[in-house]
Design a protein that fits this description.
- The protein is an alpha/beta fold.
- The protein is built from six helices and eight strands.
- 25% of the residues lie in helices and 24% in strands.
- Helix 4 links the parallel strand 2 and strand 3.
- Helix 2 packs parallel to helix 5 and helix 5 packs across helix 6.
- The longest helix has 21 residues.
Length: 280
Amino acid sequence: MTIRLARLSSLTALLPAAAVGLSLLIASPPAQAIGAGGGVLQGKGFDACTAPSTSAMSAWWSGTPWSFVGVYVGGNSRGCSQPNLTSSWFNTTNAQGWRYELLWVGPQAPCTTFANRMSYDINTAYQQGQSEANGAYHALQNFGFGTAQGTPVVYDLEGYPNGSSCRAAVKSFMQGWVDQLAIAPAQVSGVYGSACNSYLSDLAGNAPPPAYIVPADWDNNPSTSAMACIPSGFWTTHQRIKQYQGGHNESWGGVTINIDSNCANGPVAPSGAYYTSACN
């Protein structure tokens, strides 16, 4: 599961972020209550393209290494259907003990071939980043996350070809994402991407940069200190969640799911906890 994005144009893919957010509001049942905010978690987790059923999540909780799950909550480039993903799913799995890495999959770099792309114009790209942050915030509200500040949410930025104008557009877009999420009630802005090919280290120079990073570096080493292309002095204070293994099948409690493996030394929602792990 190297890519979790829709590459083919569709009616949904062509909708603006605001329309996607509206469709989420219409499609989901009434939200229940999940605590706002987040906290640092040190421990292992996984992400799957489609959120597993609540029964599968229960089977994967007790006696397993997992403490959080990556969930693709929306965006016009999200590639997988989410028939299980409702406010009730979050409430049920949260009661089981799960914490969440919440991912938003919107427009990608302008130099890619994805159906939905941000603008090369840095001013327009900045505004697009703001719009995506608004869409993500309202989607989380719809899923039942509290409106108070501090819920961590991650922008999924897939790898893209090197080029100065493309990298400048991405930096501006991500600045819009970060700045909009900082507006009260402020949320915690994160970014996922290839450790090298999404040029995450560029974003350390933004003012302010994303609060934390979720690099994909498939070296099978869960340590968040060992990351290709990310200088050791960037995002050092519980600000890293590493995707250390790509798509593969695992079975727990008699249930098999195709997952990516992650290790956290960083924020998750709705709250974090310290676990003994090798994620430092």
